């Protein structure tokens, strides 16, 4: 099942209210929300609710669509880093491979989250060559 879009905060310092990211503008101050979202990753967790890989894959696809629709900077998938033989370890391997494949096909940047080894990022802007 698709995760509902999280509320985001209006970037206007006088407002700071949570708003639905599917709206184009803040209902209080008319700030363009899509520009504000372009600095944030849409975050989903596919390994901590007992998912199997097939369910996690659907959640990643749904998350990618939601992130693109609302013009987030990219998608952050928390997949855990469990042991090689564990269910979460299998999801971590499959998720990171799946995300790298999607990124390569679409020309996005991808890689492990530098702050969480149990998460992977897809950045909708191509990352510079890391070689």
Describe the structure.
The chain has helices spanning 33-37, 53-69, 87-106, and strands at 8-9, 18-19, 41-45, 74-78, 109-112, 119-123. It has 131 residues and is α+β, with helices and mostly antiparallel strands. The chain has a domain at 40-123: Ribosomal Protein S8, Chain: A, domain 1 (2-Layer Sandwich). The strands form two sheets. It has a four-stranded mixed sheet, with helices on one face. The chain has a two-stranded antiparallel sheet with strand order 1-2. Helix 2 (53-69) runs parallel beside helix 3.
- N-C termini distance: 38 Å
Number of helices, counting only DSSP H or I runs of 4 residues or more: 3
Low-confidence blocks of residues: none
The CATH class of one domain is identified as Alpha Beta
Helix content: 25-40%
Number of strands: 6
Q: What's the story with the biggest beta sheet?
A: 4 strands, mixed
The name of the CATH topology of one domain is: Ribosomal Protein S8, Chain: A, domain 1
Into which percentage range does the β-strand content fall?
Answer: 15-25%
Q: Report strand order across the widest sheet.
A: 3-4-6-5
CATH second-level architecture of one domain? 2-Layer Sandwich
Order of secondary-structure elements: EEHEHEHEE
CA radius of gyration? 16 Å
């Amino acid at each position: 099942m698709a995760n509902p879009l999280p509320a985001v905060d209006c970037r206007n310092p006088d407002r700071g209210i949570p708003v639905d990211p599917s709206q184009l503008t803040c209902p209080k101050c008319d700030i363009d929300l899509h520009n504000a979202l372009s600095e944030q990753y849409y975050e989903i967790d596919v390994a901590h609710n007992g998912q199997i890989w097939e369910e996690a894959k659907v959640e990643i696809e749904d998350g990618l669509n939601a992130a693109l629709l609302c013009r987030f900077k990219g998608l952050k998938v928390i997949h855990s880093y469990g042991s090689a033989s564990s269910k979460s370890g299998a999801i971590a391997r499959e998720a990171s491979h799946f995300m790298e494949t999607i990124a390569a096909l679409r020309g996005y940047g991808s890689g492990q989250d530098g702050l969480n080894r149990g998460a992977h990022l897809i950045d909708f802007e191509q990352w510079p060559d890391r070689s």
